[in-house]
Amino acid sequence: MATTVSSVIVFVVSLLVGGAAIHLGATFALKGKDYTYAIVTALLGSLAWTGVEVAFSLADVSLGSLASVLALVVWVGVVKWRYRAGWLRAGLIGVFAWIAALVVLSLLSILGVTAVDAYGVPGV
């Protein structure tokens, strides 16, 4: 039971970190929406990324890095759709979100919190 509760807590905190990173990225790249909007975007982006990778895995197609690149394009597409931005601006949101996630995770690591991730932000 404790393992399930711990897993749920890590998932929620990781989703909040990913949402915060996307929120900061959107704020820097354009007029950002509210934090809740960013959390939903992080969740949808994470599901989209996972969906692409699972689809390639189930199809038994080994594309190596290309699968990750395609998943990244799909993730940027989710950000583009959610924020009604162009591809360049959505990519900028992604870059700023990635930087923000690294900073937040580094600060959490300094505080001794190392079990969390930044769900919804690729490559972190």
Write structural notes for this entry.
By secondary structure, the chain is an all-alpha fold. The chain has helices spanning 2-29, 35-58, 65-83, 87-110. Helix 1 crosses helix 2, helix 2 (35-58) packs antiparallel against helix 3 (65-83) and helix 3 packs across helix 4. It is globular and about 40 Å long.
Describe this structure in a few short sentences:
It contains 4 helices and no strands. The model has no long low-confidence stretch (mean pLDDT 83).
Key terms:
mainly alpha, 124 residues
Radius of gyration, in angstroms, nearest whole number? 15 Å
Structural classification: mainly alpha
List segments where confidence is low: pLDDT < 50 over at least 5 consecutive residues. Answer: none
Secondary structure: number of strands: 0
| Total count of helical runs of at least 4 residues | 4
The percent of residues in helical segments reads over 70%
Oligomer: single chain
How large is the share of residues in beta strands? under 5%
**Main beta sheet, described?**
none
Shape: globular
Averaged pLDDT: 83
